[in-house]
Design a protein that fits this description.
Blueprint (H helix, E strand, L loop, with lengths): L11 H53 L2 E2 L30 E9 L2 E9 L7 E4 L3
Amino acid sequence: MNKTSKKSGFTIIELVVVIAFAALAVILFFVQKINIDAMDRDKQRKTAINAMYYALEEGFFAQNNYYPETITPENLTVVDPNLFTDPSGRILGETGCSYTYEAANCSDGQCKEYTLRANLEKEDDFIKKNRN
């Protein structure tokens, strides 16, 4: 056999290694994408809770000297109504919504305390309580 004549191409082992490496890269990409998407949804939730919180404190309480028993786009008019809908499409107050508003110490629809909460995917719950 002539030493100068060689077959060109890849061996099966080389192909398996390349395919395994490519599969691992694809898996890592999708895992990171899922994590980044969850963090983005958490950021949306925090933004919504902060908007409601500041509307309650700087707007509603400043004008009325109490907090409402429930919050809606009608009594928090300065908040974008879309913020009352969580990233999964559920509206504040609906079962399964990741946002909750819990009024406390209420009398005749006027409350002295509240807790706003967002259930996050990648962190502990994001909680805001009344400051007055």
